[in-house]
Amino acid sequence: MKKLFILTTVLAATIIVKAQDFKKDVATAKTSYKAGKLEEAHFALQQTLQELDITIGKEVIKLLPEKMDTLKANLKEDNVTGNVSFVGATIHRSYGLGSKKAELEIVNNSPLLGTLNAFLTSPFLAGMGSDGKSKVIKIQGYKSRLTKEDSSE
């Protein structure tokens, strides 16, 4: 419960800080809309949403553990990027060095999540995608897909 409160507080603070940029982009979108420039209005709103996703991603990455089992996080490799078509963000953190390495990718608001969710919720579809290198797991009640790459241990 404490982590949820901290995350909610961080997200609220982030939204307040970005509110000024948000107001500017919304004003640009309104002006473009009134001038009949729908593509420019759409782009301004997409930019605002992408920046919010990236800002929230940067706050989430601060909450990730600095150790995974015996592997230390490579904090210099932390990365938060906007996804294709301005939909969501990807949060990346890697752990360990050399042959002993783990990578964590968190993707939010991706259009592919609907397809992935169909695989995760349907035993038939999940079985079709099973090649022995991946499996569906639950982490704190959320379904996820764990994949082992050939080049990893």
Give an overview of the whole structure.
By secondary structure, this protein is α+β, with helices and mostly antiparallel strands. It has one domain (2-110). It is 49% helix and 25% strand. The protein has helices at residues 2-34, 38-63, 112-121, 123-128; strands at residues 67-68, 71-72, 79-82, 89-97, 100-108, 134-139, 142-147. It has a three-stranded antiparallel β-sheet, with helices on one face. Strand 4 and strand 5 (100-108) form a beta hairpin. Helix 1 runs antiparallel to helix 2. It is extended.
Question: Could you give the topology of this structure?
Answer:
Blueprint: H1 2-34, H2 38-63, E1 67-68, E2 71-72, E3 79-82, E4 89-97, E5 100-108, H3 112-121, H4 123-128, E6 134-139, E7 142-147
Antiparallel strand pairs: 1-2, 3-4, 4-5, 6-7
Helix pairs in contact: 1-2
Structural descriptors:
two-stranded antiparallel sheet, 4 helices, single chain, 153 residues, 3-stranded antiparallel beta sheet, alpha+beta, extended
